[in-house]
Amino acid sequence: MDDQRAAGQDEATPVSGESTPRDERGDEALPFGRRRRTAASALVAMLVALALGALFNAPAMKKTALELPFGGERSFRLALVDPLATVSHWLFLDRPARLTADALGRPDPGPTDTQVVVITPTPEPTEGGDSSGGNGDKPKKTLQEKPLPRPFQGHPMHLYIAGDSMMGLPGMALTNLSNKTKLIKAQLDYHISSGLVRPDFFDWPAQLQAKARSFDPGAVAVMFGANDNQALQTSSGKVHQFGSDGWKKEYRKRVEDVIALLFQNGVRRVYWIGQPIMPEPSFNNQMKLMNEIYASVAEETFGVQYIDAYKLLSNGSGQFSQYLRDTNGKLERVREQDGEHLTYAGGLRIAEAVIAAITKEWLSAKKGEAGAPSPKASATASPAP
Amino acid sequence: MLFPTITFALFFLLVFVGNWLLMPRQGVWKPFMLIASLVFYGWWDWRFVLLLALSAVANQFFALWIAGMPQRGSGRKWALAVAVAANLGVLGVFKYYGFFVTSVADFLSALNLNADLPLLRILLPIGISFLTFRVLSYVIDVYRGTLRPASLLDFSVYVAFFPYLAAGPIARASEFLPQLRGPRDPRNVDTARAFFLIFGGLAKKMLIADYLATHIVNGVFTTPGQYSSLEVLVGIIGYSVQIYCDFSAYSDIAIGISLLLGFELPDNFNAPYTAASVQDFWRRWHMTLSRWLRDYLYIPLGGSRRGTTRTYVNLMLTMVLGGLWHGAGWTFVFWGFLHGAALVIEHARVIRSKGRALVVQRQRRELAAALEVLGEAAPPTDDRGAAGPSLEYDHRPWHGAVWPRIGVFAFVTFAWIFFRSDTFAAAVSVIARLFQSWGTVGAAVTPGVVLAIVVGIGVQYVPRSVWQRGEAGLSTLNPALQGVLLAVGLMLLDVLGPTGPAAFLYFKF
Prior knowledge:
heterodimer; A: 385 residues; alpha/beta; Rossmann fold; B: 509 residues; 19 helices
C-alpha cells in the first residue's frame, strides 16, 4: 500500500479525472517524436499483418482445422484454410515458419501425415517366449499371469501415468502418493485435449509404446475419454458418429489395442481409470457409455483393473456434487469451476484408489508370490453405473 | 474469447472498423460498442451477459438514488451502504460461496457439530472481481460528489468495455466516462505504442509465461517430491516471472487494443521486480488495484491519520482484504497478511528514521539556543525562520541499491508460494522440498527455463526510454511495413509458442 502517497492525498480527496479528461490530450507531444497515426493507417497495418500472418501460418492453421472434431465446423474451416495453404505454398510463404521451426528444433507447424494409427497386436509374450502355445502342452502363462516382482528400496516399480487434461491433478496426486511409498517411481504424462479417437491430434499409441520402452513401467494408469465424445475415422477412412454401433466397436478395439500394445512392451498391469460423473446430463451420459466400454474390456482382460472414478466422485445419492466429504467428514471441493475437471482433492480420491489397487497387487504379497488372486477383484473395481 | 486467438483477431478487426465508422455518430456508436462487448463476454457463457446487464442497471439506479439525495444527511450514507452491500453480496455469492460453506463446515466440525449445508454449484463469471471494483468506483465517486451520474448507456459502455472486461486494468469511471463525452479523433491514434503493447503482451504470455508454466512451474507446485531442491527453487522463481508476464501481458494487450479504438487506460505495471521496498512494489504491481484499495478502502479506514497503531491495523486490513479479493481461500488471505506485515515493518522503519531525525533536529535547536544565550555567533538563519530547515530523513525503509531489490524480490517470491498453492499443506511441501534434495540439478532446469526467467526479470531493468525509442521508430514506418513486421512477429510467436491458447491467470480473479 502506498502509504506515503496515501497520507499526502488523504486530506485533499483527489478530484476525478473529469478535471483533466484524457480526450483533451490528443495533441500532446509524445516521447522521442513518436507520431500518432490515423485509424486508416492502423487498419492497413492490421490487414497486412493478418493477411501476411495468415499466409505465413497457413500450415499451422490447416493443422488446427484438421484437428477439429469431424463435422460442419471442421469442413467449413478446411474450406477456408485449404486454399490459403495452397497459395502460401505456391508463394513460398510457408517456408519461413518451417525453416524457423526446423532451425530451432521445434515440430513442423504443418499437419502431420498420420491420420489413423493402426495397431496390429501380436500375441502376448508367454513364459519361455513361446507365444503360440501350439506345442501340444497346456497353454503357457502370459507375462501378466506370472507372479509380480516385489519392488524394494532402490528398485522401485515404475508407474507410468497417462491421459488427457482430466488426468492432470489426479496424476499429480498419484505421483505424490507413489513418492511416499518409496517403492513406486511414477512418471506423469498428460496431454490436453487428447484421447484415443483422434491420433492425428495426439498419437497416444505411439506415445505409450515409446514410454513403455524408455521408462520400462511395470504398471500403467491411464485415463482417457473426456475428449473422445466425437466421431472417429477408421483405418479404411470410414467415419463413425459418436455413440453409433460402429463407433462403439471401433472404440472398444482401440482400447483393447492400447492394452495389447502395453502388454507387448512388458507392462504387467494396467489400471484403467473411468470418467467421473459429470454435471451436464448429456455429457454425463456420454461418459457413462465410455465407462461401460472400459469396464467391459477390463472385465475380460487379465491384468487390467477398472478404477471406478464415477462412483468415487459421486455423492451419497449417486449424484453430481461440486463438494464431497472425505473419510474424516471434512467437506472439500472436488471439482474445478467448470464442474468437469478435478481439483487436487478430487484427484486424490482417484489416486488413493489406484494406489490401493497397486498396493494390494504389488506391495502386499510376500516375496515370490503372485501379486494377487485376480486383478479384477478389487474394492475399487466396481462396474460402471 | 481469448486475446491470442484467430477468433479474437477477426472479432477485433470488425469492431475496429465499426468503431471508427460509427464514431462520429455517438448515438449509434455507443450501442454498437456495448453489443460488441457483450458478444465478447457472452462468448464464454451467455449467462454472464445477464449479470453484466443487471450490474449496470442496478448500479446506475444506486448512483441516481445517491445523487438525488441531499448532500448532508444520513440518507446518502445508507444508500451507499446498500449499494456496496449489494455489489459485495453478488461477488460473495459467486466467488466466495464455496469458501464460506467449506469454512463453516470446518468450523462446525471442529465443534463436533454437523450441519447439512446447501452445496450449490455456482459458475464463477470471468472477471467478476474487476467488475465489482469498477462499478463500486462509480457509485462511490458519485457519493463523494467527484463524479456526476452518467447516462445509463454511457455507464453500460464503461461497465462492459471489452478490452478490460476480463482482467483489468481497473479503469475508474472518472477516467473512462470523460472519454465518452465526444467522438475520439481518428487522426490521432497512438498506433505504434498500441502495436508495441499488443505484440509485447503476446510475446510475454506465449513465450515466457506459458513456457515456464508447462516446463517447470506447474510440476514443481503440484508434485514437488519429483524435483530436486534446485528445481523447486527455480520453479518458485519461475512462478514469480510467470505471473508477472501473464498478468502484465493481459494489461498490455488491453491497453493496446483500447488505444487502437481511441481510448486510454491507466498503466497497470511498472517493472515491479525492480522495487527496492514492498511499498515500492505495490506502486509498480497491479497499480490500478493498489490505488483502488488506497482510495476506496485504506483512506476511508482512516489511512495514516489516526496514529501509528491504527495505521498498522489499516495496512493489515487493506492487504488481507486485497488478498481475499484475489481468491477465495485462506492461502490468499495469508498472502495478503504477509504483504501487510511487510508494509507494517517498512512503515515502522521509516517512522524510526523520522524519530531519529526529530531528535537531531531538536538537539540542533537546543544547541542553537544555548549558543545564543552564551552570546556566541548565532547560527546562520535563512528564510525558513526560527523553525530551521525542514525535517529531512531517509524515506526508504531499506538502504542500498542492490540488496533491497534482491530482498524484496525474495520476499515477494516467497509470498507467491502461498498465492499459487491450493492449500497450506501444498505450500509447506514446496517449501520443505527446498531443503531436502540438494546435490543434483535436475532435468527441469533447462537452458530454456533459465533464459525465460532471465528475460522475464531482465526486461524490467531495461529503461523505459529504450522501449519509447522503439515505439517512436515504429511510428515513422509506412503502415504496410508495420504490418509486415507484425506478421513476421506473429509467425515467430506461432512457431515458438505453445500449441493452443492458454487462459490468462487473472481471469479467475
